[in-house]
Amino acid sequence: MDIRVLKSTVKVLVEEGKGILAADESTPTIKRRFEIIGLESTPETNRIYRQLLFTTPGIEEFISGVIMFDETLRQKTDGGIPFPKLLSDRGIISGVKVDKGKVKIPNFPSEEITEGLDGLRERLLEYKAMGASFTKWRAVFLIGQKTPSAVCIESNADLMARFAVFSQEVDLVPIIEPEVLMEGTHDITKSEEVTYRVLKTIFKRLMDYKVIFEGMLLKPNWVHHGLDCKNKASNEKIAEATLKVMKEVVPSQVPGLVFLSGGDSPEESTIHINDMNRIDKVSWQISFSFGRALQQKVLQVWMGDPSRIKEAQKVFYKRARRNSLARTGQYKEEMEAENGE
Ligand code: 13P
User: Of 13, 21, 117, 184, which sees the most CB atoms within 10 A?
Assistant: First the structure.
């Protein structure tokens, strides 16, 4: 392991004014996203869509890295250029989702464990040879009457820590994504309590496995009321509560927090990043690693129609730019109305 390589990758990923595009939807997830716009997901339609994103003129000003799914990392542009090469030629680094998805835990209804350690060492070497510099592993935690359970949190924490050490062993920066889901009726206080408990357990386990904090990134959820909660928290409160928990649990050596959007609207997601960057000076970079919040409107404009690619790319460019401004607290909500989508 070469710590210098890990640190230099991290530095590029959290460079000021830039964030990460999460374009690593698995086969079932991209199928669901395409269903909304009435399009069938096949390896070829998936490729055309990712090509639209990755060839958008100017995005390298705002996007430092792209997370891909195994299928995408192996795909090429119409002109035969492998996606990792296309991106690196534009100064964007490639990452890959390496977990193999979630399985239900018997005896723990509605809870899941993320799998993917079997054969991981070999896969990591293959991904590295294909041009990947970083990796991602996602685990989910559902808030309910009795969830998340200690079994769910502890077993996911252990698997995540093992993923992280395997990645660092071959100089791939691990992005750890423990997502406390927004589904549910819980209020923001409950989300704060659960996010604290999950992250506390995970960082303890990362320490046990001697994960190098300087060579990893955390991809957290923001502390947020449940989608079906009647008592909604303000954006100010969301930013404050999120920072409070992060300060309590995230070691200062971790270079960056690259937030997921978790189903919040694109505008709200940008506001949260902006607000957190305005509140306080903190030791870590506060950035984004959005899937839906960067892509939702792009899909709605594109609709699978080749004649709408340029228009969809303009939408993607604008959204990426607004998130870039939020990195330094310079985003303003009026921008949505001024420039339209
Ligand atoms: P969202 O921003 O849509 O939550 O996606 C982030 C992600 O990488 C999910 O795994």
Answer: 21
